[in-house]
Amino acid sequence: MHVVRAAVLPAVGAPLEIAEIDLPEPGPGQVRIRLAAAGVCHSDLSLSDGTMRVPVPAVLGHEGAGTVISVGDGVTHVVPGDEVVLNWAPSCGSCHTCSLGEVWLCANALRGAGDVYARRSSDGSDLHPGLNVAAFAEETVVAAGCVLPLPDGVPLTDAALLGCAVLTGYGAVHHSAKVQQGETVAVFGAGGVGLAALQAARIAGASKIVAVDVSPAKESLARDAGATDYVVASDTTAREIRALTGKQGVDVAVECVGRAITIRTAWDSTRRGGRTTVVGIGGKDQQVTFNALEIFHWGRTLSGCVYGNSDPARDLPVLAEHVRAGRLDLGALVTERIGLEGIPGAFENMVAGKGGRAVVVF
Question: What is the Cα Rg of the chain in Å?
């Protein structure tokens, strides 16, 4: 057993507690990782407040990178000393959606979240690994499928963002919306995923990239990521976006907020025949309404997007090449570097709509 510090969610809706946990040696098919960094994602907030459900008590954190300390029997694709990125949604390769090549919809991707992976040192109580990887800890033990070798040329601390924000934002633009050279794009929400989507739209060659956020303070972040225009969210947002595009609307809207009103506004901001990709995770109470006539008349497409419709094993080398070439700036997504104790404050900033990505640095 190894004793490490972790941010523990004792119950849904309860404050996170920084505690010592007992971490076992990796068993067959497992890998022990020393974390270098972990991003604080809105999904972690959704898990803590019950919008998304996982077994508790749990150690959250699903966006991380670190170094392999040891491996269990049968693990051959990484060895101690390797730098790696954590994949919180490993595909099983055998369910129906995996057989279709849609690994981001794997029916068994989160089966490990119900396991007991560690115990609290103070009382021996069982702990679950949030979304499989429990990255809000100095070290973690994960299934081998959750471990991806980090390609050369990517700084280890920044690489944590590849595990969720960048795969999701880049994938939403390139895999789900399939943005083409010269198209116009609006991105709703300039947090970590939204900033990644803005960079992805720039990489795709979009001719106009409109960033939308409730905070005027995020304009410089958005423009640095690739936005050509910035709109502060209001009741007139869709009208403003149409005015920026010859009264037509954008070809593509990417919604990274997960609120009914934002989804509806994103839809209204697209041209006739436009495409809206919804990345944000909303609650069951967020009801979006359309009438049958407008669906026919506008001919628009509305689609959901899970994990950027990405295959991490396929896409990680592509993202690394963009990083090495200077097209993708991971550090530009980070607005705060914190310790484990800073995670609750990062949650508060997300609720208040402040900043981009907060990263826990170990």
Answer: 20
pTM (2 d.p.): 0.95
Contacts of residue 285, Cβ cutoff 8 Å, sequence gap at least 6 = none
What's the CA gap between 23 and 3, in Å, rounded? 6
Task: Say which residues have a Cβ less than 8 Å from residue 235's Cβ, sequence separation at least 6.
Answer: none
Q: Are 116 and 12 in contact (CB under 8 A)?
A: no
d(CA 59, CA 32): 15
Cα distance between residue 185 and residue 47, in whole Å: 30
Are 334 and 65 in contact by the 8 Å Cβ rule? The answer is: no
- With H, G, I as helix, E, B as strand and everything else as coil, classify residue 111: helix
Burial (Cβ within 10 Å: 0-12, 13-18, ≥19) of residue 96? exposed
Structure tokens at 310: 């990405």
The answer on pLDDT for 50 being more than 90 is: no
Tokens representing residue 301 in the block: 């497409």
Per the listing, tokens 């509806």 go with: 264
pLDDT digits (tens, 9 = 90+) for 85-99: 999 999 999 999 999
Single out the residue of 178, 175, 199 nearest to residue 187, CA to CA: 199
Kindly state the tokens that stand for 283: 């609650």
Structure tokens at 325: 């070439």
Predicted local distance difference test score (pLDDT) of residue 282: 87
Q: How far is 362 from 340, CA to CA, in rounded Å? A: 8
**Residue 51 pLDDT more than 90?**
no
Contact between 163 and 96 under an 8 Å Cβ cutoff? The reply is no
Q: Give 191: exposed, middle or buried? Use CB within 10 Å, 0-12, 13-18, 19+.
A: buried
pLDDT tens profile 15-36? 999 999 999 999 999 999 999 9
